[in-house]
Please model this.
Amino acid sequence: MLDIAPFIDILIAFAAFITIAFAATEVAGYFNTRSANNSIVQTANTTITAVGAMTGVYVTAQQAMTIAEITGVPTQLVTPKDKATVS
Model:
């Protein structure tokens, strides 16, 4: 008669190995997903900060333009005349 005890031991060893590999893969996937989420959050925070800074620059420029208009400083560009028509 054939003794199947060694085959059962091999199957149990493979099952244990597969279980450990699955657990290690899940742990690695958890850290990888967490790292990706942290990266997305950091990018969003940087974008929000950049938009806030750009808004501040825009408001400051608008205030400077308003002050220049009120005080009478011209804000239009003065282009030079054509050299051919200047005598």
Q: What stands out?
A: The two ends are 122 Å apart (CA to CA). DSSP finds one helix and no strands in the chain. Helices lie at 5-70.
